[in-house]
Amino acid sequence: MRHLKRLLLLVASVLLLASLCVLADDDSVVLNSGEIIKGKITAETDAEVSIEISNERHTVFSTRTIARSDIKEVHKLTPEQRQEGAAYEALGRYQLNPNQEFKSAEYAEGIAAFDKFLATWPNSEQATNIAARQTEWRFEKFEVDNGRVKFADKWMPPDAKTPLVERQLLHDTEQGLQALVPIVKAAHARVDAAQKEHNFLHSTAGYKGKVLPHPEYEHVMARYAANDAEIPKANSNLAAAIKKFDELFAQYQKLGGTVDYREQINAK
Fold first, then answer.
1. pLDDT score at 10
2. Do 33 and 18 sit in the same domain of this protein?
3. Of all residues in the chain, what percent carry a pLDDT higher than 90?
4. Same-domain pairing of 83 and 115
């Protein structure tokens, strides 16, 4: 149960971080065509501007060099603006979880981080947003300090949360099983197809005992090799899918699940 609660916390935190992961300290180059290129300007000459760009998650980067004749405007942040943007982005780690309260000390850490940002950049365009987040953190700290817990964005006594968590875990586990059923069935089908190909290749209906022209022989040998490689891969894939299904199904039963999803796998 404790492990699954941590899993819910991790998923919610990742989703919240992803929704707010917007780089606040981008330079920009406006082209004559109207296109706006955002990133970090790395070099400028009288003839061209180089700007480092990336994907939305900032995991893949490239440098684009643009001729000055194609540029309408260049907006480059000051060092102070860039520092403020980096500080704002760093606050992205402080995100509340609708299904899990934090420890009082963790709330205190977040509140202190918001305090520091507001004290350093009181006129920031993000000040209102940060102040609102800080208020939310202060409220949640108050609730925790008074012995209450959180689930589905609601605060309650600890004993009221347990059945809600168990119900949510049962629902999530059942959804996982429903997603695994077609995966296991597809893995079974892959093994069956590989075995069917093996049986054909090694039968008289296939190529057993036959004398073939060389080009056809080479083609058949390639089929033999591909099938020899596919059979262990298909069986390994099936074993992994079944293992994952069995583990999740056992957990589902412990949580009180009543549908036998094994029947769906065995159904033709």
1. 42
2. no
3. 85
4. yes
85 and 47: one domain?
no
Burial of 50 (0-12, 13-18, 19+ CB in 10 A): middle
Q: Specify the number of domains making up the chain.
A: 3
Average pLDDT over residues 164-193: 96
- What are the beta bridge partners of residue 97? 100
Whether residues 13 and 139 share a domain: the answer is yes
166: tokens are 């168990």
pLDDT value for 25 = 63
According to the model, what pLDDT value does residue 8 have?
Answer: 45
Instruction: Give the range of the structural domain holding residue 109, as residue numbers without chain letter.
Output: 1-25+78-156
Q: Give mean pLDDT, residues 209-216.
A: 95
Domain edge (last residue) among 37, 53, 76? 76
The DSSP code sequence of 206-249 is: TTTT----HHHHHHHHHHHHHHHHHHHHHHHHHHHHHHHHHHHH
The verdict on 152 and 166 lying in the same domain is no
Co-location of 171 and 258 in the same domain? yes
Do 196 and 134 share a structural domain?
no
Cβ neighbours of residue 39 closer than 8 Å, sequence gap 6 or more:
26, 27, 28, 51, 52, 53, 54, 64
Alpha-carbon torsion (113, 115, 120, 125), positive or negative: positive
Say whether pLDDT at 154 is over 70.
yes
How much is the pLDDT for 22?
40
Q: Is the pLDDT of residue 7 over 70?
A: no
